[in-house]
Write a structure and sequence with these properties.
Strand content of chain B: 5-15%
Order of helices and strands of chain B: HEHEEHHEHEHHEHEHEHEH
Oligomer: heterodimer
Helix content of chain A: 40-55%
Number of helices of chain A: 7
Distance between the termini of chain B: 57 Å
Number of domains of chain A: 1
Distance between the termini of chain A: 30 Å
Order of helices and strands of chain A: HHHEEEHHHH
């Protein structure tokens, strides 16, 4: 698998990770954890709208919304929302990568992302395969929700 | 050289008060320069591999339970050579006083302390209350990573037998006290993993026959510190029915939560023979023909065949 198969924002993130040494990759993941946007108020007040990814070691909740007049150009834009505690920077970091890499894309673009994309970040050894499973599960959950939402509107 | 032991009323009631330090004690040790000059090495050990990077106690080094202490091929801990290299790189020599702290009431810190003990490291202590108490008290944190002078650590062969039980040891132990430190749902067999944690693939649910259920966190108070001697006695001697001099095995899912209970039984209550079964439920729940009890009752041993 190469980064050519990925949407451009995600490909750029993967390239950034791959250009770094292992300790620097961890530092970059920490920066992503700090860059994860807060939930908008309408979701903070309605935690039941978020779905928990139980495969993550720490509590991680996510949901998606679709925007009819999105910026994707090629149809409906999918917006991603994540919630994870500050005490779980690894989980937040994964969420930050997926947010920056996928937020605002079309359903088709998100569904085309390979399931094993997290492996491309080169973090498996530094983080351990056990922890990487959480990120793979997060991507899987997003794709399932996107598929369900686009199927329903089709 | 061992660093002086903390004296206070709470710790004095424990069997081995030298195994704990308070946040006040550590703060004054930091002020005195004992960490900066390498007399005392402070180690942070957390569940999340990046939590240390978000801010840690000034001068503290990081040891990750998974990437540093587990062998990356065999399901086992690192060997003597790898441990010596790890310790030395963190500024730890064989006679260094090490204080370990971490998140979640020192759950992972106790696990790291247990692995240090497998290698016979003499002076290793826990910071009572761990990371959360330090932060709650508004004490200093930093993102600066120390670059400690390399320690002098010999290659020591790991001595598992006194504090580590394998599956066959547990089978031979049946009939003597066992403490299951998992959640009630895991104990009864309703589920095979922690609520909200990854499914790690145990084929069967339940507990080892006769094991008493004492979830690990009961040993910790609200602020993450260990409960008092009196409270711990009431839980483990009273409710769980342990008696002085018992030979005890503790287990959980992979041996981390039970390290916390192992610490409480061994060093706070003074049980001489306490072993942690690190294979725990991820091994027992998959092993062929080992006896299992489902439900809230402890069950009996020997187990009646065919029941």
């Amino acid at each position: 698998m190469t980064t050519q198969a990925l949407p451009s924002a995600l490909a750029a993130i993967v390239d950034d990770f791959q250009a770094l040494s292992e300790p620097e990759r961890l530092q970059l993941l920490l920066e992503f954890s700090e860059g994860l946007p807060e939930l908008p108020e309408r979701l903070t007040n309605h935690p039941e709208l978020l779905e928990q990814v139980v495969e993550c070691q720490s509590p991680l909740f996510l949901t998606i919304e679709t925007e009819k007049d999105g910026t994707a150009g090629t149809g409906t834009a999918v917006r991603l929302f994540f919630k994870a505690p500050a005490e779980a920077p690894t989980t937040r970091g994964f969420a930050g990568v997926l947010h920056e890499g996928l937020d605002g894309l079309s359903a088709a673009e998100i569904l085309a992302v390979p399931d094993d994309m997290p492996e491309l970040l080169g973090l498996t050894r530094a983080i351990t395969p056990l922890r990487m499973r959480g990120m793979t599960a997060m991507l899987g959950r997003i794709k399932r929700k996107v598929a369900a939402a686009s199927g329903a509107s089709a | 050289m061992p660093y002086p032991v903390e004296q206070n009323e709470k710790f004095a009631a424990y069997a081995h008060p030298e195994r704990l330090v308070s946040t006040e004690w550590l703060a004054s040790a930091l002020e005195s320069g004992a960490v900066a000059n390498g007399e005392l090495v402070v180690v942070e050990s957390d569940e999340d591999v990046l939590l240390y990077e978000t801010g840690h106690i000034p001068g503290a080094v990081k040891i990750d339970w998974h990437t540093d202490l587990n062998d990356d091929v065999t399901r086992d801990y690192v060997d003597g050579a790898a441990f010596a290299e790890l310790a030395a790189s963190k500024g730890i020599s064989r006679d260094t006083t090490v204080v370990i702290y971490g998140d979640k009431s020192n759950w992972w810190a106790a696990y790291a302390l247990w692995v240090f003990t497998l290698f016979g490291h003499q002076d290793v202590r826990l910071l009572d209350g761990g990371r959360d108490k330090w932060i709650a008290e508004g004490r200093d944190l930093t993102r600066d990573k120390p670059a400690p002078a390399t320690g002098d650590y010999p290659v020591v062969e790991r001595d598992d037998a006194p504090i580590r039980a394998f599956k066959d040891d547990v089978l031979a132990h049946l009939g003597k006290p066992l403490i299951d430190v998992r959640s009630a749902e895991e104990y009864t067999g309703q589920r095979t993993h922690m609520p909200a944690y990854p499914e790690e693939g145990a084929l069967r649910g339940g507990h080892i026959p006769t094991a008493a259920s004492v979830p690990w966190a009961r040993a910790a108070a609200e602020d993450g510190t260990f409960r008092s001697r009196e409270e711990l006695d009431a839980i483990y001697l009273g409710e769980a029915g342990l008696a002085a001099g018992d030979d005890v095995v503790a287990y959980c899912r992979i041996g981390e939560r039970s390290s916390h209970t192992w610490f409480a039984l061994k060093f706070l209550l003074g049980f001489e023979s306490v072993r942690n079964y690190d294979g725990s439920w991820t091994e027992w729940g998959n092993a062929v023909r080992v006896p299992i009890v489902k439900g809230a009752e402890r069950g009996s041993f020997p187990v009646a065949v065919g029941v």
